[in-house]
Design goal:
This protein has about 160 residues and is of the alpha+beta class. About 25% of the residues lie in helices and about 35% in strands. The chain folds into 2 domains: about 10-55; about 60-160, Rieske [2Fe-2S] iron-sulphur domain (Rieske Iron-sulfur Protein, 3-layer Sandwich), CATH 2.102.10.
Length: about 160
């Protein structure tokens, strides 16, 4: 029996082949991680700026007579990539929300029968008047679109709670 321990025979390590991290490699790693962090934070800054810009955009969504009581109209706001839903709850009561569920961004729809906004993907439900979560996995209320009504026209002019 040799004087070498059994574990050294099973796991031979050649110390000259061991990789040491040089200061240069460590610095490269730090720069790379810092750059990725900077880019990631930049995304959130741009999202916040986009929300501020959305508050300044006012677009015409519909004419008052276009949507009957209990009816809906789909539109895009604040950009062409953002689906939204306008709901006429009563003769003079209108609400609008972003049309993406706050759980996994599935499209939501209004059910006049139940008076709720429903997400068919995971059985989520939101209250139509406030957008608050009634059931299911959504973690937060639907982002509400601020409406402005003048001269028989309905305008979207900002997003709350996005």
């Amino acid at each position: 029996m040799s004087g070498t321990p059994k574990w050294r025979e099973d796991f031979p390590i050649r110390w000259e082949a061991d990789n040491y991290v040089t200061r240069r490699e460590f610095t490269k790693f730090l720069v790379l991680v810092s750059g990725a962090t900077f880019v990631g934070n930049g995304y959130f800054v741009l999202q916040g700026r986009r929300e501020v810009e959305a508050e300044r955009i006012r677009i015409e969504v519909a004419r008052v007579e276009e949507v009957p009581v209990g009816g809906v109209k789909l539109f895009r706001y604040p950009s062409a990539n953002d689906p939204a839903i306008l709901i006429r709850l009563a003769e003079n009561e209108w609400v609008a929300y972003m049309q993406r569920c706050t759980h996994l961004s599935c499209p939501v729809h209004y059910s006049a029968k139940s008076g709720r906004i429903e997400c068919p993907c995971h059985n989520g439900a939101f209250e139509a008047r406030t957008g608050r979560v009634l059931e299911g996995p959504p973690p937060r209320p639907l982002p509400r679109i601020v409406l402005y009504i003048a001269e028989g026209r309905i305008y979207a002019q900002g997003v709350q709670g996005s």
